[in-house]
Amino acid sequence: MSTKAFQTQLSQVILKRAQSELGEDEDRRQQVIAIVKKWMTQQPHLQRIRLDEYSIICFARGCKYSLEKIKIKIDLQCTLRTALPEFFTGWDPMKPRIQDALACGSFLPLLDYDQHDRKVIIMRPGCFDPMLFKPEDIDKANFMISDTMGREDEQMFVTGMVIIVDVQGFSLNHLTQKPLALFKKQMYFLQSAPISPKTINFIRTNSVFHSAYNVVTNMLNDKMKKRLKVHGSDFRSLYKEIDRRILPKDYGGDGLSLADLTDLWKQKVEEQRDSLMESERNLRVDESRRPGKAKTAQDIFGIEGSFRKLNID
Question: Domain holding 255: CATH number?
Answer without folding.
Answer: 3.40.525.10
